[in-house]
């Protein structure tokens, strides 16, 4: 019985180390911001702005297809590790569709693209930018929230859970077809 406990502990340590090596990139709160506002939008990144201030494309990991802890579902998003309170930025021009609280995502923002065909989902937020409201127009790069660990996120690992959904005509703020945001944020390597 005792060997079984040690084996479980060893497996937990091994899985934690693998997660840290392949999935977690820590960006210090005082790291210099690497995105110059005058640079063309897609100079270093993909079609969308990286939604956490100061995070370079090299700090992103493609976790879209990873299984969640239960193994029952895919991630369908990427996690961007950053210090609690780091600015979360609108990835594109659009409109705030919904400010919402859920058990899994915690404090969230659903932003609809200007053409209405995409929803950008920002989750585990610590707080909203002052004055942020449903229906408000936002510009690419505008601060909309701050990184946190609300919902089912580990309080010791604040991050932004970011997802993109393609929407059909007239679809509400929820649903749609999940698409991998990683290639939209970082150039393929």
Automatic annotation (TrEMBL):
Domain M23ase beta-sheet core stretches: 74-175
Gene3D superfamilies, per database record: Glucose Permease (Domain IIA)
Molecular function (Gene Ontology), one example: metal ion binding
Family matches, as SUPFAM superfamilies: Duplicated hybrid motif
UniProt key word Glycoprotein: no
Cofactor or coenzyme needed: Zn(2+)
Keyword Metal-binding attributed: yes
Keywords: Hydrolase, Metal-binding, Metalloprotease, Protease, Zinc
CDD domains registered for this protein in UniProt: M23_peptidase
GO terms, biological process: proteolysis
PANTHER family: CELL DIVISION PROTEIN YTFB, PEPTIDASE-RELATED
Protein name, per record: Peptidase M23
